[in-house]
Amino acid sequence: MIEKDAKRAIALGYFDGVHRGHQALMELAVKRAKENGAISSVFTFDAHPDTVITGQRVPLIVSESRRGEEIRERGGVDEVIFAHFNDEMRNMEWQKFVDDVLVGQFHACWIITGENNHFGYRGQGNPERLKAECERLGIGCDIVKNVSIDGVVVSSTYIRQQIAMSNMEQAAKFLGHPYALTGVVQHGRQVGRTIGYRTVNLELPPEMQAPPFGVYVSRVVANKEAHIAVTNIGVHPTFGLGDKACVEPHILDFDGDLYGKLIEVELLHFLRPEQQFSDTEQLKRAIAQDIAQTRAYFAQEHK
Ligand SMILES: Cc1cc2nc3c(=O)[nH]c(=O)nc-3n(C[C@H](O)[C@H](O)[C@H](O)COP(=O)(O)O)c2cc1C
Ligand SMILES: Nc1ncnc2c1ncn2[C@@H]1O[C@H](COP(=O)(O)OP(=O)(O)OP(=O)(O)O)[C@@H](O)[C@H]1O
């Protein structure tokens, strides 16, 4: 149980996807917390500020239901504070946010932010102002230099663009881990077994930045075990059964029952777009080829 008035080392930002820049900030938050006998925290919002401000939905790398867990697991922080991004928060002056919220309400003894972070009303809070305010308040402050890879600054925006172009390898390089979809296995329409390839069915959360419909070399993690899989994302037009997008991994050489289990589907490599085949025989041939390519991908990886 975390005490309400415990001291905190707080990392600031939205943290969608928990990429390599975010990881640097959180490592520092954990270190500062240890040095100061404090709790390591991430302060974020329940909705993406840009979605609220512009009215245009920012598609997420990690689904809303997984965000807290993802930040804690990947960042190793003790807690994630989800503040409600309402009008009061949106219109709050940056200094009031630091003084009243971070220090007053959450007892920040150290604040950690990236050099590109802006916060408070109209984004008027910036690292220089934060540094000066922390000095005035007598608390610690770290401004983390941008983490870049191959000359490109790591950001959630860049990673979303890579996912949208089905460039899964590049997304993984910047995230520091594969892009993954998580969900509870649902009952499908049982068509899979009639075509000879059983699939595990997951819904595609609507708020996600999903990759384009198509077939992906994958790894499925279920019951703490990783399995080789090949995943179709889309509406399976060959069967013309509506337009609700599904994530459907076929786990290779697997005959278990995963209904109702929480699984993670890592999408590692794009193979081909989803297609409307004129009959199921053609679809079966395409799937056999997808499976062969998947085996070749892993064989190459383990050489
Ligand atoms: C590797 C793989 C690739 C697939 N590719 C397509 C495709 O291109 N077009 C299509 O209509 N269905 C495709 N499917 C079929 C559907 O994703 C799904 O498996 C099928 O509709 C059975 O659905 P069910 O599990 O709900 O019964 C593919 C399935 C797999 C496993
Ligand atoms: N490449 C990076 N290196 C260091 N710090 C970073 C990097 N990217 C983001 N940060 C910092 O991590 C915190 C959380 O970042 P946030 O998720 O708000 O931004 P982002 O990843 O740049 O996303 P977006 O692309 O939507 O702006 C912020 O303090 C931000 O400055």
From TrEMBL:
Q: Where is the Riboflavin kinase domain?
A: 174-299
**Pathway this chain belongs to:** Cofactor biosynthesis; FAD biosynthesis; FAD from FMN: step 1/1; Cofactor biosynthesis; FMN biosynthesis; FMN from riboflavin (ATP route): step 1/1
In the record, which residues are listed under signal peptide?
A: none
User: What are the UniProt keywords, alphabetically?
Assistant: ATP-binding, FAD, Flavoprotein, FMN, Kinase, Multifunctional enzyme, Nucleotide-binding, Nucleotidyltransferase, Transferase
Report which superkingdom the organism of origin falls in: Bacteria
Q: Which reaction does it catalyse?
A: FMN + ATP + H(+) = FAD + diphosphate; riboflavin + ATP = FMN + ADP + H(+)
Q: What is its EC number?
A: 2.7.1.26, 2.7.7.2
Q: Does the keyword Secreted apply?
A: no
Stated family = Belongs to the ribF family.
Q: Which GO terms describe its molecular function?
A: FMN adenylyltransferase activity; riboflavin kinase activity
Q: Does the keyword Lipid metabolism apply?
A: no
Please report the name of this protein according to its UniProt entry: Riboflavin biosynthesis protein
Entries under PANTHER family matching the protein: RIBOFLAVIN KINASE, RIBOFLAVIN KINASE/FMN ADENYLYLTRANSFERASE
Top enzyme class: transferase
Organism, as annotated? Butyricicoccus intestinisimiae
